[in-house]
UniProtKB/TrEMBL annotation:
GO terms for biological process: isopentenyl diphosphate biosynthetic process, mevalonate pathway; sterol biosynthetic process. It comes from Kwoniella shandongensis. Belongs to the diphosphomevalonate decarboxylase family. The keyword GTP-binding does not apply. It holds the Pfam family MDD_C. Gene3D superfamilies: 3.30.230.10, GHMP kinase, C-terminal domain. It comes from the Eukaryota. This is Diphosphomevalonate decarboxylase. Keywords: ATP-binding, Lipid biosynthesis, Lipid metabolism, Lyase, Nucleotide-binding, Steroid biosynthesis, Steroid metabolism, Sterol biosynthesis, Sterol metabolism. InterPro entries: GHMP_kinase_C_sf (IPR036554), Mev_decarb (IPR005935), Mev_diP_decarb (IPR029765), MVD-like_N (IPR053859), Mvd1_C (IPR041431), Ribosomal_Su5_D2-typ_SF (IPR020568), Ribsml_uS5_D2-typ_fold_subgr (IPR014721). The keyword Lipid biosynthesis applies. One of its GO terms (cellular component) is cytosol.
């Protein structure tokens, strides 16, 4: 009997940013946040978890084919420990269950996108691990309850346990039991929501999110103001999503992205996640909105230079055309709309972007995607492990 589960989990990109912890051990945030889950057909993590009494040398983990250390007391270790504890509770209530909680684990995980490049790889990966272990251990917990564990691995991971539009509630209990993720609206509520990811850099960022946000909490005077306005933004953007009001959604998304990067700059020493290309993309989106007479696009940037541009499907060809015109990419882009680069709104002021556009490669590549679903359970044929419990890529 092989005890194994393979799952995939999505990336989520926040519209209201999580930045700062009030408890670094439990990963309790200083403010609530809200994100859009992106389609797994384009960006996902896949994880296979297997237990066997015959496995030696304890638990083992491989990430993208390379063995990694499960550090005692580390975040990954905590997630595994908590999931095992839930399985053990089931075994204690039903002696007929195999003692999976006591057997060593073999875990293989693979991301189909750049790790540590500001594309929320840790969120997708930790959510996938928790989803995989939940299936392996046949746990009854809901996605919100599972988010309590995923949160302790990577804060944003709790939001990747849902599809659609997701809120991570700040909570107030010191134990963290009310700091969890909840669905605001499912994927099918607003399927017209699309996203264009502009990969400005796939290099590992200079300041990690973990160290950066703690420096902000310790040194930024602007953070206090941000924390005061986030609750109102959370309510307003939730209502915009429920009523499918893109103009309001876009306004709040861009304001909050700018607010987040402002507190990064207000940190001592300052944190620079955006670069000149990032700022040029902001100028491009702002001018597209001005020339269109309404918000047809919304930019947002996580802790990195890569832009995520949200737009409704009907307006995505204009966005893609403008980006292709002024930011020619080195990587070939399969444009689903076959857009023309001269299809700009009447009155668009070309002076807001560098004359003649940026050199080829300023934006390395584009990823067009849309709002997506939550974790998926995959079949045995998609397992990442071979019969010996080693990644197939290493066999």
């Amino acid at each position: 009997m092989v005890y194994e589960a393979t799952t995939s989990a999505p990336v989520n990109i926040a519209c209201i940013k999580y930045w700062g912890k009030r408890d670094t051990k439990l990963i309790l945030p200083t403010n609530s946040s809200l994100s859009v889950t992106l389609d797994q057909d384009h960006l996902r993590s896949t994880t296979t978890s297997r237990v066997d009494a015959s496995f030696e040398e304890g638990d083992k983990l491989w990430l993208n084919g390379k063995e990694d250390v499960i550090k005692d007391g580390g975040r990954l270790w905590v997630c595994i420990k908590e999931m095992r504890a839930w399985r053990k509770e089931l075994e204690e209530k039903d002696s007929s269950l195999p003692p999976l909680s006591s057997w060593p684990l073999r875990i293989a995980s693979y991301n189909n996108f750049p790790t540590a490049a500001g594309l929320a790889s840790s969120a997708s990966g930790l959510a996938c691990l928790v989803a995989s272990l939940s299936k392996l251990y046949e746990l009854p917990q809901t996605p919100s309850q599972l988010s309590l564990i995923a949160r302790q691995g990577s804060g944003s991971a709790c939001r990747s346990l849902f599809g659609g539009f997701v809120a991570w509630r700040e909570g107030s209990d010191p134990s963290g039991n009310d700091s969890l993720a909840e669905e605001v609206a499912p994927r099918d509520h607003w399927p017209e929501m699309h996203a264009l990811i502009c990969v400005v850099s796939d290099a590992k960022k200079g300041t990690s999110s973990t160290s950066g946000m703690q420096r902000t909490v310790e040194t930024s005077s602007l953070l206090k103001n941000r924390l005061e306005v986030v609750p109102e933004r959370m309510e307003a953007i939730s209502q915009a999503i429920k009523s499918k009001d893109f103009e309001q959604f876009a306004k709040i998304t861009m304001i909050d992205s700018n607010s987040f990067h402002a507190v990064c700059l207000d940190t001592s020493p300052p944190i620079f996640y955006l670069n000149d290309v990032s700022r040029a993309i902001i100028a491009l989106v702002e001018e597209l909105n001005r020339a269109s007479g309404k918000n047809i696009a919304a930019y947002t940037f996580d802790a990195g230079p890569n832009a995520v541009i949200y737009a409704l499907e009907e307006n995505m060809p204009v966005i893609i055309g403008a980006v292709k015109k002024y930011f020619p990419t080195t990587e070939e882009f399969e444009d689903p709309f076959k857009t023309q680069t001269n299809d700009l709104p009447e009155g668009f002021d070309v002076r807001v972007v560098r004359e003649g556009g940026w050199e080829k490669g300023a934006v390395k590549g584009l990823i067009h995607t849309r709002v997506g679903d939550g974790p998926r359970t995959l079949g045995k044929e998609e397992s990442l492990l071979n019969e010996q419990g080693v990644p197939k890529t290493l066999a």
